[in-house]
Amino acid sequence: MTRELSLQPRLALLASLVPQGAVLADVGTDHGYIPVCLRQRGVIDRAIASDIGREPLEHARRTAEEYAVGGIDLRLCAGLDAIAPEECDTVLIAGMGGETIWGILAAAPWTRDGRHTLLLQPQTKIEELRLRLCENGYAVTREHLVRDKGKLYVVMTVTAGERYTPGAEQLYGGLALEREALYGDYLAHQIARLRRRAEGLRQSGSGEADGFAALADALEAKKGKWEHDNGT
User: Fold this and answer.
1) What are 202-232's pLDDT values in tens digits?
2) Fold of the domain spanning 9-166
3) Residue spans of beta strands (DSSP E) within the chain
4) Domain map (residue ranges) of the chain
């Protein structure tokens, strides 16, 4: 009997957000763990697993063979270059920097047509990704938090929306995170980041230091209110 593939917390959260019956495009699939797991559980009927490197795709092929799973189309390509809009309804992009994720989406404007759900998990530059999404007609409908090996990760559920420019408090404090149990921890991390940045700028004589310190103070107040409202 083939054993069931188990996922680390970050990947498990992403997998849990893929709708039943979805046709998935997993961009930068690496070992193919998410599409293999979802096929094994019967959540999806088929998937496209793409990667820019041949070696990750070979890893994904071996994973599918190990767990006796079919229905996964492996494609060698950068981003969504070899994936057509009608071939999927859910796009998952994880484990990359926010600027790389944005580059992939910007090169595939069909991802904001309202017919696709995007699941994004940036490793870095999350504030930049939030800004790019909002200013270019995407809506971040929900953000999720998960702790994996001591680090907090944000996973974003995104679809089509109105263009607008969010304020710095939203960019650093989150667009839709208030319902998350780990939100206080996330704000504490962001506040510490901002205070370190303000101190570094202050030591270099930059006039930007006060702005980052004020933003840290605003998030501190937001954290206090959130903790009060949630009884933490």
Assistant:
1) 999 888 999 999 999 999 999 999 999 998 8
2) Rossmann fold (3.40.50)
3) 23-27, 46-51, 72-76, 90-97, 117-124, 138-148, 151-160
4) 9-166, 183-230
